[in-house]
Design a protein that fits this description.
The chain is mostly helical. The protein is 85% helix and 0% strand.
Length: 94
């Protein structure tokens, strides 16, 4: 996730929570309560989902890096094994 889109997504979730708070202060009656509950719940849920997304993406990056290190290590090991072999001389005829 790009830093700009990450900032935009978390910012949107924060704006929803703030809008819910404003609705609680400015809109009276059942309508204000419903808007408050919906907006704050939506914003907090979105923020929580984004946190889980970030955790999952971080784990994916770690797994990819580990896979690249393992492949490099295996390739280096294979090259070392190939270098250790001495060229065989042809046998003398009997």
């Amino acid at each position: 996730m790009a830093p700009r889109s990450r900032l935009w997504a978390f910012g949107t979730a924060g704006v929803l929570v703030l809008a819910g708070g404003l609705c609680a202060a400015l809109v009276e009656g059942v309508t204000g309560e419903v808007l408050t509950i919906v907006l704050i719940s939506g914003g907090l849920a979105a923020a929580l989902l984004l946190v889980f997304l970030e955790i999952g993406l971080g784990e994916e990056r770690d797994l990819d890096a580990e896979e690249r290190r393992r492949r490099l290590r295996d390739l280096q090991s294979l090259q070392l094994r190939r270098r250790r072999r001495l060229p065989q001389r042809p046998r003398r005829p009997r």
